[in-house]
Write a structure and sequence with these properties.
The chain is mainly alpha-helical. The chain has helices at about 5-20, 25-45, 50-55, 70-80, 85-90, 90-110, 125-130, 135-145. The longest helix has 21 residues, at about 25-45.
Length: about 150
């Protein structure tokens, strides 16, 4: 194979690789960032240097499909920003948590405003992690007819 053939083949494969990439949407960024926050919170709760800092933090289970996520994030951010222990406010993981929550809150409330679709408004699910079954009108009508 000649040099031009190899160059054309390499160019073709680089375009194929680039075509698989897609820019992040508001939804995918919010979903990914909420997962990152949950992983970071788990690390903060288990790491020996930040375990005492986590005692002040309220329990939160992030779900970007829940309309209560904005108010719960705002309240959670307030607690992180006003942590009673200066040592905890300066810990790198706590600073990273603050940044990620601020970014997620900004994405949900301003950048993706009206782009996200909320499927539920179960505020208790964000506090407990237990999601109540949500029946649509069709399913609810079937359940009522079966009785």
């Amino acid at each position: 194979m000649s040099f031009t053939g190899l160059a054309a083949l390499a160019c073709f494969f680089s375009f194929v690789r680039l075509s698989d990439c897609a820019p992040l949407t508001c939804y995918s960024r919010a979903l990914g960032l909420s997962k990152e926050v949950m992983v970071l919170l788990d690390k903060i709760h288990t790491y020996h240097r930040t375990k005492t800092c986590a005692d002040v933090l309220p329990t939160i289970f992030l779900d970007v499909h829940n309309s209560c996520v904005t108010t719960k994030l705002r309240d959670f951010l307030y607690v992180v920003l006003n942590h009673p222990d200066q040592y905890c406010r300066e810990r790198p993981r706590m600073v990273l948590l603050k940044r990620k929550i601020q970014n997620l809150y900004t994405i949900i409330t301003t950048v993706c405003y009206r782009d996200l679709v909320f499927f539920t408004d179960d505020c208790e699910a964000i506090d407990t992690g237990h999601i109540r079954p949500h029946y649509s009108e069709d399913r609810l009508q079937l359940l009522q007819e079966e009785r």
